[in-house]
Design brief:
Elements: E1 6-10, H1 11-21, H2 35-51, E2 55-59, H3 67-72, E3 81-83, E4 89-93, H4 100-113, E5 116-118, H5 125-135, E6 140-144, E7 157-161, E8 172-173, H6 175-182, H7 189-196, H8 211-221, H9 224-231, H10 242-250, H11 252-262, H12 284-294, H13 297-312
Parallel strand pairs: 1-2, 1-6, 2-5, 6-7
Antiparallel strand pairs: 3-4, 7-8
Length: 314
């Protein structure tokens, strides 16, 4: 029988998705919205039922905009930085006011249930995902709406891309499906993103290069270092042109910095922790208190049943 996968959850991607998908009129007993918490728990329960994993890791942003990345590319996620009433950047992330408490509650509920939750100081969840996919034994399914994570797809790692509405429409991408969708092999998706730019992350791209041209260059020459070499060849070899070569050479430093920023880290020191599905809550008393506070009894029960069912199927 094939090995069952480990689910690697891009937690922020999933709780933001839940927050915007469900109305804020869904509230806890004290009147606070619980739409993100409720949706996150229901999403995990459904993922467990449908993907039948052997384990789960909720990967966490300990630093959503690491300083080392911002120093290399100052525009990196700069549009998401919160400002005070005077317009001065505070350094924190600009998130909805009623989401912060829910994020704390999500972390506490997952911890009380016993689902592994991993983060790393000065790194993003993407780096935890990349490191977990590289280091954990057996197949993995990454669950995220972040296309940057296409780069971690390989023979052992697939990406369940949370786009196009409901979960039944989310594509599960292996290397072949990813290349068909994006036009380049998964390992070179980062080169595509660097050349064309990525407004969602504040990566500027190269002047005059859009998605089609970027894909053609990657297909013809390979990753960015090889494309930079090709830009130095006179006369240029198609699909390189003199105009493209000039733009690429002028942007060399920016390309190299952006490529470092956009490449997920694969060698983080990960916790020595069992990621198997919990068969019973890690902290039942704390879980009961959180359920009462937030009014998510049905969602927690559904998740616990899904975990018990799949754990028992091993």
């Amino acid at each position: 029988m094939p090995m069952r996968p480990i689910l690697l959850l891009d937690s922020a991607s999933l709780y933001y998705r839940s927050y915007y998908a469900l109305p804020s009129s869904m509230t806890a007993p004290d009147g606070r919205p619980h739409n993100a918490l409720r949706g996150m728990l229901s999403t995990i329960a459904r993922l467990v039922n449908e993907q039948q994993p052997s384990g789960i890791v909720a990967c966490w942003d300990e630093d959503w905009r690491p300083q080392w990345r911002a120093e290399l590319v100052p525009s990196y996620k700069a549009h998401r930085v919160a400002t005070d009433p005077a317009g001065t950047a505070t350094g924190g992330e600009d998130e909805p006011e009623d989401l912060g408490d829910q994020v704390v509650a999500i972390a506490e509920v997952l911890d009380a249930i016993g689902i592994a939750r991993w983060g790393a100081e000065d790194y993003e969840a993407d780096d935890v995902i990349g490191s977990a996919a590289a280091q954990l034994a057996g197949p993995c399914i990454v669950v995220s709406g972040d296309r940057d994570l296409v780069q971690v797809i390989d023979d052992d790692t697939r990406l369940l891309l949370t786009v196009n509405g409901g979960m039944e429409r989310w594509p599960l991408l292996d290397p072949v499906a990813a290349e068909e969708r994006f036009g380049v092999p998964p390992a070179q998706y980062v080169d595509l993103a660097v050349l064309r730019g990525d407004p969602s992350d504040g990566l500027p791209g190269v002047a005059g290069i859009g998605a089609k041209t970027a894909a053609a260059l990657v297909q013809a020459f390979g990753p960015c270092p090889a494309i930079l070499d090709a830009a130095a060849v006179v006369p240029p070899v198609r699909p390189m042109t003199a105009r493209l070569a000039a733009s690429i050479i002028a942007a060399q430093a920016a390309i190299e910095a952006a490529r470092t920023v956009a490449t997920v880290v694969r060698d983080l020191a990960l916790p020595d922790e069992d990621v198997s599905l919990p068969t019973a809550p890690e902290d039942p008393a704390r879980l009961a208190a959180l359920v009462a506070e937030w009014g998510v009894g049905r969602q927690v029960d559904e998740l616990l049943k899904a975990l018990e069912r799949q754990a028992g199927a091993e």
